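INFO batch 0412 | record 1 of 1 | parsing
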Amino acid sequence: MEKRRLGRIGHETSVLVYGAAALGGVTQEVADASLEQALAAGINHLDTAASYGDAELRMGPTVERVRDQVFLATKSAERRADGAWRELNRSLELLHTDHIDLWQVHAVCDLPELDKVFAPGGAIEAFVRAKDEGIVSYIGITGHTEQAPVVHAEALRRYDFDSVLTPVNYHLYTADDEFRANFDVLYELVQDRDVALRTIKAIARKPWVGDRELATWYEPFTDAEDIRAAMSWVLGTFPYIAGLATAGETTLLGKAIAAEANRMDVAEAADHLARVDDYTTIFV
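INFO prediction complete | emitting tokens
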């Protein structure tokens, strides 16, 4: 699997980042098998969150076994320092480790939410403390909406985050002029600062209509060629992106691994995606 430098963090990360939201509601047996599939394919970067149901609990046995072989990231959506600190200690216990490589302020999707993080007594104080005490090595920020690139660019002006996790895919970037302009600003900023950039929602197709058939909160591509095109486009269009997070559904991991191993060139991927019916933004 291709590896890319994770900004100034320096880790040579697999371009597929294991998205552990997939483990939020599965059995231990399913979790163990999914993580083993990822590790066997060369994925060396695991990304989870305290808010992902039982994900950290399910990851603990594998993390303990391979801790020195993987880059481990988790997140807290708490907005107060005391709450974030409690969540960090719970994450350490569940993940069977005494340190986190990357701890991220999670789901910062608009400017009022960013203001909460930086308010007196806000979560950023816990993040800085954890880094100062050596419990975490790096601090990041994440977000999920079409406004995330704007919010994350502003976050970098307020604090020198080591990593950004933000959404981008073919439809968002090519069909929404405002999103494209905002993403371009963020993309240039992270390169200027040597900040790690990872992305999400590469294979998101549209919002769910009716009953959800998979664990993802959006309807993803499930056809192998659609997934191959979607991932190829993101990784080929933006070479500074160090990795894209796999979808929150264990049954799609094998298709993502296969797609990464046999990527299309950007022009072929764009042509394929332009012809996909019923492809739209997931942010409604």
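INFO post-check: The chain is about 45% helix and 20% strand.
INFO record closed
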